[in-house]
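Our consortium's second objective concerns turning raw sequence data into structural hypotheses that experimental partners can test. To show how far this objective has progressed, the report includes one record in full. It was chosen at random from the queue rather than selected for favorable results. The single chain below, 211 residues long, was entered without modification.
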Amino acid sequence: MAGMTFAPAVLRRARAVVVGLLLLTLTVLAAPAAQAHDMLIDSRPAAGDVLSEAPDAVVLTFNNPPLGVGSAITVVDAAGATVAQGEGTVEGTEVVLPLTEPLPSGALEVRWRVASSDGHPIEGTIAFTLDAPAAQPAETASAEPTAVATATAEPEPTTAPAAAPTAEAVAQQSGLAALPTWLKVAVGVAALGAVAGLVVLVAKRLREDRL
């Protein structure tokens, strides 16, 4: 009876050992498969980041190098509008998308999709916030116009110098031409009387000489 009781106990222990070995074997075999599955292990910007400066690139880091084809990265704002997109460049285990245009401030999200090393597509999203100060417009030197007093002097009236009187004009002004008409008549009459008296006197002397 004792031998019959002992046999089932040994069988139970042996069965437990076998089951444990099988579980251990499955765990060991499953570990490499899980390790071989590609996954995102890091990113810049990281999920939940609040940045004070816009990043110059989106960088995704995987545990295995993804394939160089089939990658796509898109950055959208809070309304879902696309603010940046492109095919990422595979650099080892990283996929990099340079950002050539500045991102707007506010809630943003990176939506990515890559082809893993085994060819299967994997994708995900990364939400972050950009709290950058708004760009100030360049100050332009706008000097207020100053009134410059320009003295615009009135041109002084220029009077042409009086023409010098000619000798004839002087003679006329200083002679009979300068006398009034009535005086000219009187002078003429007196001159005629003097001439007549002179003629009479000459004629009288000629008669006396003949006698």
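The partners drew two points from this record. The CA atoms of residues 151 and 173 lie 48 Å apart. The longest strand covers residues 106-115. Both points have been shared with the crystallography group to help prioritize constructs.
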